Input
Amino acid sequence: MNRTLAAGAALVPLLAGCTVAGNASGGGAGQIVVGYQSKTINTVTAGTLLRSRGFFEKRLKELGGPDGKKYSVVWRDYDTGAPITAQMLAGKIDIGSMGDYPLLINGSRSQAQGPDAETEWVSVTGYNLRGSLNGVVVPHDSKAKTLRDLKGKTVSASVGSAGHGTFVQAVRKYGLDPAKDLKVENQQPTVGASALQAGSVAALAQFVAWPGLLVDKGQARLLYDGGDLGVPTFHGVVVRKRYARENEKIVQAFLRAQIDATAYLHARPVEAAESVASSTGLPVETVYLYNGAGGVATFDPTIKKPLRDAFVQDVPFLKSIGVIQTPLKVDPFVNDAYIRKAVGPSYDGAAASTANPAAITGTDGVCKKKVDDPATAGEVWVQGEPATRPVADPVCLLRNVRALKGEGKQLRAVYIPDTAAGTRWFADKDVWVEDPSAAAEKRFKPFATREGAEKYVSAHSGAKVVTYDEAVRRA
Output
């Protein structure tokens, strides 16, 4: 999924059984082949949501209208970025979407094949500046409290993926040598999830949506939040450079359609999440955790400097683990000219901003407060209601939950940012801390990991871990 990469030899099994109807450039007049990953939910504005809403086809109809030209789109769905890259290099996919590490592989391999095969990164789909799209989960009964406790254990990861990259960089910060102190099983996310349930691995290090999905299902708890690493992670759109030069109007139509999908996601976050959930089979509550208002992912098609800088820093890491042989020449690969034109005069301002365009707003119905601080704002999703209810802060969330339960309401999901890292997480799956020294409106604090909670407790005399139900009862 999402950002999984594979070394060159691993491309063969990934491609087995995959077929693409003809060569993209020779598949018929006006035919565009798009490679995407339906379950990689932070690429939905260039994939699942874009397809389900028909935004690209609408833009192509407008493009062909004046001269009566008709265009058709062939959508090719894959589990990872690796086969999309292979098909692009074979000239069989024109436009693709994938995570940042697969983008690096895509660019590196296309540059190695010469000018006619080169690709370029032209827009962003979803991103997180701290890296919270990646995480490490363990079974509920695991004794591990930090990554250090995984020493000598076996961990499942998709080698070369951003989830794997986050894991490797994080365990080094804990004083572990990932090559000597741990055993990493190179597995696809679905295989790794099954291995975790079977007890054959001690932990699973993966990218969105797997950490949230397993936690939401009650099958695991979050051991490590990628946001603690502070390294930006993102997903983006890549095109064949020659194709883009020869078909600039089509590329512009695609990017404008991506902007349409992004605007739809911002304006109707619940409907967008329901659409993606329906197309992928993922629980809508998990999709909304990442893609909803104030979600873990921020959706903005502009190419931002922090993302580009992180991209440059990722090149040596991928080379060090043998995923790429020839370092990518970043400057010729990054091209924001197309998305700049699609966005228009507001591009520079949008590219400079890292504020979430889909921030949670409104009024907290229980606390009677304005909801306007992204660092504390959360949501309560009541069963049977078409929209979520905004809450101002963690204590207000607890009070909302208590009030709703008192009314006999059933809750679909509750979301709140982590006190330290700011990562939005399921409030009922958080580790809650009571700090008697804090003001009443700040007395209860949520943490996505046990480690985060215990760090706070150790630094604040009198603070203690409490259950979620106790926090709801006493807030």
About this structure: Residues 1-23 have pLDDT under 50 and may be disordered.
